[in-house]
Amino acid sequence: MMQEKLKRLGLKLPILPTTTVGSFPKPPHLIEARRKFDAKQIRAGELRLIEEQTTREWVSVQEEIGLDVLVDGEMYRGDMATHFANNLDGFKISGLVRSYGNRYYRKPIIAGEVRWRGPITVDWWRFTQGLTKKPVKGMITGPYTMMDWSFNEHYPSRRDACLALAEALHEEVKVLAKAGAKIIQVDEPAISARPEELPEFAVEAMEIITKGVDAYFICHICYGAFEFIYPGMLKLPIDNFDLETSNSELDLVELLRRHPFTKDFSFGVVDVHSHITEDITTVEQRIQRALEVLKPEQLWIDPDCGLKTRTRGETMEKLRVMVDAAKKVRKSLFGNSP
Ligand SMILES: [Zn+2]
Asked: How far is the CA of 268 from the centre of ligand 1 (A)?
């Protein structure tokens, strides 16, 4: 079913398409430029040129490695929730809040009615798609995660906040699709934070996001407590789940054996938290294991999560091994034909 949708959208992808989750590491000169921009030492235009140049470099890297579906690499983003909060009406940003360990970050505050002010991601999507013939994913942070990671000072409940965010982000999805994005990823790392909220309103929020938009929707989830939201999460009206599977205590394959998976599945085959690059045999085995419970035409191959915490070299090595392993498995499935 999903394959038909891809075909209808005019997307020609090989079997076991390879992609990445979204972020790539920022080079030191970009980090420095962002610091200078925050300190008002350089202008937005100057920062933008560096972000564009770095995006160009990452597009070349992805093409050279041979990935099938590309991303912009998120060179222009700080935190994935704050980036959207800054660009939606109704938000304020807090002072520094301690997360875990000694990490501090600024948390979004919902201080008024959340409204879509204008395109947030379209400009970067268009810029990146203009650099390549391969499809580039549109990417938004989902309403549930935006709600869960923000202080809510305005709405009476988590449900109300989440659904208001969904309405606002639906506008973003519409303009992304209108600009030509055929694959749209909704990042919902927090969706298993409170499993009871999935049927209560997370599904409804995703219905609002995707309603009437003709695109292939991927939902990325990490930090997953999948055992508590599976198989209920299959009710989310999306085409493809992108899950962290390599760095997981949970044996997802066993879970899928008990309840067959009814969507496409982007299977994380390299661990983004480790400096060590997996060898090709390990990655091949992970793909083969996924194929025990998924049909080849259901399966996409990618890393567990964004790669922003790895070095450029580690990122490239991991992606190369991943693409090579996918090619070997394709061959083993279909002989030498593509
Ligand atoms: Zn993730």
From this structure: 10
**222 CA → ligand 1 middle, Å:** 4
Q: State in Å: Cα 274 to ligand 1 middle.
A: 14
pLDDT digits (tens, 9 = 90+) for 75-133: 999 889 999 999 999 999 988 888 777 777 789 999 999 999 999 999 999 999 999 99
Per CATH, the number for 3-27+66-78+121-145+157-334 is 3.20.20.210
**Dist. CA 97 → ligand 1 center (Å):** 21
Q: What spacing in Å lies between the alpha carbon of 189 and ligand 1's midpoint?
A: 6
The 3-state secondary structure of 245-298, one letter per residue: CCCCCCCHHHHHHHCCCCCEEEEECCCCCCCCCCCHHHHHHHHHHHCCCCCHHH
Q: List, for residues 196-217, the tens digit of each pLDDT value.
A: 999 999 999 999 999 999 999 9
The tens digit of pLDDT for each residue in 213-222 reads 999 999 999 8
Domain-by-domain residue ranges, the chain?
3-27+66-78+121-145+157-334
Tell me how far the alpha carbon of residue 34 lies from the centroid of ligand 1, in angstroms: 23
* Count of CB atoms situated within 10 Å of the CB of 4: 8
